[in-house]
Amino acid sequence: MADSAPAPSGDILAPRMLALQVLDYILTRRQSFDIAWDINLAAFAALDVRDRSFARMLVTTALRRLGQIDDVLAKASAREDAPAPPLLHTLLRIGITQILFMDVPDYAAVDTSVRLGESISLSRQCGFINAVLRQTTREGRKWAALQDASSLNMPFWLRAEWAKDYGIEVSEDISSASLAEAPLDISIRNDSDRSYWAEMLQAVILPTGSLRRQAGGLVNSLPGFADGLWWVQDAAAALPVSFLGDVREQPVIDLCAAPGGKTAQLAAMEAKVTALDRSGKRLRRLEANLARLSLSQNVIIEAADAAIWMPKEPAPFVLLDAPCTATGTIRRNPDVMRLKTPQDMEALKQTQARLLVQAVRMLAPGGRLVYCTCSLQKEEGEYQIDRLLRSGAPVSRLPIRAEEVGGLDSLLTAEGDLRVFPYHLAALGGMDGFYAARLVKNT
Questions:
Q1: Which end of the chain has the smaller Cβ count within 10 Å, N or C?
Q2: Smallest Cα–Cα separation from 114: which of 7, 16, 26, 2?
Q3: Active-site choice (256, 324, 372, 374)
Q4: How far apart are the two ends of the chain, measured CA to CA in Å?
């Protein structure tokens, strides 16, 4: 059950202190994983490589297993109410994570947690910290072995949505698969170099064409990264661009483009890309990624609201990677489970609908529109397309063919849309949950 992680070196408290601060920002202050890390970037930069990996693993494991951790905490503390103040609650979660789900000796998890308490003005609670964690070392593994991990860790509203959409059995399969750590998927700049980079990166070539290696180590230290010869992109997320067809030398509008994985794909295919995003910060990240890949010359970047922006001329190709709840990426972004709510989905549904209508307006007659989201809910995928078609929009569905997804017809719906679940390609490490539909504008 334990996740392997590099043992911390140097100051044994430093990576744990960073993990405590980041997790507190996420769980108490409701900040995303990326924002929480950015806020604590100086502390992260001060650590060596092993300590950085340990801190990150500690945070992601705690987020992924939070329901189980809190269940054990309630038993070990013999109280149903959450420990107060919130920082004490987070500290205990950090300790239990190490004991139950990481390769950390029990004595080290207990001792460092007590010392952390002393260092953050929780000295009066150190006896309680010690007692709870020692009880966890004695009984926690037995309790954890009896837990239903998916029901404890996955928010009820998500499991209910998935059960409504796909049935209880599939909902449980999604929940279980979403708790696994994702491998590292890679898109290659030049298709002809795929076999070479598979060997260099010790990766396998998936049926869809992406390279896959097991997670671990720093991405930017791998061969070819600094030279811009490949980029990280989940295998499912790499599929929608290909559904546009031959875009070489053709204008393509890439809506909600940042951070730029699909933009890079389009640029590498020699399309004439106009990449839009509302967020200046996210666009700066997109610019940096394109610069590293030496693909900037093929892309015009605009900071604009895609729901109101219009091109000077209708485009033959539009890609809409719409903002969504991102529930298909829980394996990589376990903070999604802790931060997203049904209210978020309702608000995003409205945004997606507006973006779809505007994307159709941008499209030239006979042009292709690919709509995609990394959400597992039909409300953000299939039902958006159904509503658009029922509204009388001048588009028709153009079914995706099995040969366009590496022959994996299990990834396609009866209507010809892409619907990927986290348990697809399970023997090779799974995939992110994803949806895509291809539409053509009526002439």
A1: C
A2: 16
A3: 374
A4: 57
pLDDT of amino acid 136: 98
256 tagged catalytic: no
> Comparing C-alpha atoms, which of 264, 274, 252, 243 is closest to residue 370?
243
* Tens-place pLDDT, residues 179-210: 999 999 999 999 899 999 999 999 999 999 99
Maximum C-alpha span of the chain: 74
Structure tokens at 342: 């049904």
Retrieve residue 244's tokens.
Answer: 């546009």
145-151-153-154 Cα dihedral, nearest 10 degrees: 160
CA 23 to chain centre: 17
In sequence order, the β-bridge partners of residue 438 are 370
Global pTM reads: 0.93
In SS3 terms, the chain reads as CCECCCCCCCCCCHHHHHHHHHHHHHHCCCCCHHHHHHHCHHHHHCCCHHHHHHHHHHHHHHHHCHHHHHHHHHHHHCCCCCCCCHHHHHHHHHHHHHHHHECCCHHHHHHHHHHHHHHCCCHHHHHHHHHHHHHHHHHHHHHHHCCCHHHHHCCHHHHHHHHHHHCHHHHHHHHHHHCCCCCEEEEECCHHHHHHHHHHCCCEECCCCCEEECCCCCHHHCCCCCCCCEEECCCCCCCHHHHHCCCCCCEEEEECCCCCHHHHHHHHCCCEEEEEECCHHHHHHHHHHHHHCCCHHHEEEEECCCCCCCCCCCEEEEEEECCCCCHHHCCCCCHHHHHCCHHHHHHHHHHHHHHHHHHHHHEEEEEEEEEEECCCCHHHCHHHHHHHHHCCCCEEECCCCHHHHCCCHHHECCCCCEEECCCCCHHHCCCCCEEEEEEEECC
Do 92 and 27 form a contact (C-beta atoms < 8 A)? Answer: no
- Look at the chain and count its residues: 443
pLDDT tens digits along 45-68? 999 989 999 999 999 999 999 999
